[in-house]
Amino acid sequence: MSNETNKGEAQLVTQAITRMLDEGAAGVLVTLIGVPEQQLGELRVGARLLAPESSERVGSLGAAELDEEVARRAHHFLSSRDEAKSIRVEEFAPGLSQFRGVQLLLERIEAEPRLVIAGAGHVGAALARLAALVGYRVTLIDDRAEFLSRDLFCSPLEQGIDLVVAEQWDDAVREAISTGRGVSVAIVTRGHKQDEDCLRAAIAANPSYIGMIGSRRRTNIVLDKLREEGAYEEQLKKVRAPIGLDIGAVSPEEVALAILAEIVAERRGGSGGSLSSWRRD
Fold this sequence. Notes:
By secondary structure, the protein is of the alpha/beta class. It has helices at residues 3-22, 64-78, 89-92, 122-134, 169-177, 192-205, 216-228, 233-237, 252-268; strands at residues 26-34, 48-52, 58-59, 84-88, 103-110, 114-118, 137-142, 162-165, 183-187, 209-212, 239-240. The chain is built from 9 helices and 11 strands. Helix 5 (169-177) runs parallel beside helix 6 (192-205) and helix 6 packs across helix 7. The longest helix is centred in the first third of the chain and has 20 residues, at 3-22. The protein is elongated and about 70 Å long. The N and C termini lie far apart (59 Å).
């Protein structure tokens, strides 16, 4: 393969990664990092293949049959919690004996996780700060400008929190969620009306996670109202209400921790249970 061809393929992979991240999608970048000496003629160290979760692969490792098996393995890797892993071909495709000893690096490629918080009261503000610390890109929305003063979120870490003063709650939430891919929404407003507006907009935008704070009675009032308006039951079942894991939280910071713990568990596929429960069973 010529240098020009290599450069062309590398550029296509880079462009595909950019496009995938812009769309909020995820995928696996596979790089060929080790080749036995006898195979150096047909395979090239540094060759890359991108396997997006919901579209066709881009690039090549140098052999069609290898690309096919690697793409299948990449989708299996994407369903795991690993960020990166090196693997030899014989570990997942023993039938490809001609590529025995070839070593690959699999890397998860996805946009940074996003959290949209509707409500900048004590819980919302604490959640925004905690989520920013954990690595989320945070948008904090409220209709009260004084709750969103940059002076309240002035540390270097908090400077990255996007503060949005809402003229209309539903418009602001919908715009912040955008395509919904990889976005979590926490509704922690001060009243039923605001909850309804935000939840209605969130359901329509279809983010990866929706949760709403409040007692069972309060959350059921809001859910029943949307049910009367024609919201599908399957959509309402996805709403985590009351939001968060049961950790006995009392203070706003503890409530924020309970909320973020559930969001992370949902994103990573965790159960939310105690890691040591097996010792007591």
